Amino acid sequence: MSQGTRGSSTSAARARLLGTATKIFYAEGIHSVGVDRIIAEAQVTRATLYRHFTGKEELVLAYLGLADRELRSQAEVAQAGEESVADKLRAVCRTIAAGIRSPGFRGCAFLNAAVEYPDPDHPVHRAVLAHRQWFLDTVTGLLAGTGGDASAEAAGRHLVMLRDGAMASGCLSDPELVAETFLQGVEGILRARSAPLGG
């Protein structure tokens, strides 16, 4: 076997492990799934798992890292097609609404992980907070670009809370209605940004 073939086989096994873990962790939770289940469904050996990941925690961090990269990419792609800052924000929020409407939606992978890893010093919890800080910074930056006298920081926090509520509600009630309500809330935030203070 050539070095190139061995390298591609190694990355294929890692991708299979991560893909399997991602599917199961998201659908069923993290603590309820053991490495034996992941090994069996990924059709790899235990040695292969430990060749790529030091243990389950590193696999969980890789799962969240993958989710983080995908969501950042979605946000970038969504903004690329829009001209105004407000429309860029709307486009980002439409990707969130599309996720809520998608088959198999089980809420936010990061909020779900935070529930399972409540210790603020745990690496998984820190990964959740880092992702949430990126999202807050992203929407706050966009809101700052929409003008108006109101605080972009307050509006950003409002939008994050609105998004959190939509992600929780989207797997408990009608996802279409939740997505529509979320997008209406975003419009409300944008209107408040353009209204004069005290007006």
Automatic annotation (TrEMBL):
Domain of life: Bacteria
Pfam families, per database record: TetR_C_13, TetR_N
Key word Transcription regulation present: yes
InterPro entries, sorted: Homeodomain-like_sf, HTH-type_TetR-like_transc_reg, HTH_TetR, Tet_transcr_reg_TetR-rel_C_sf, TetR_C
Protein's name in the database: TetR/AcrR family transcriptional regulator
DNA-binding region as annotated in the record: 34-53
Domain HTH tetR-type: 11-71
Species, as recorded: Streptomyces andamanensis
Keywords associated with the record: DNA-binding, Transcription, Transcription regulation
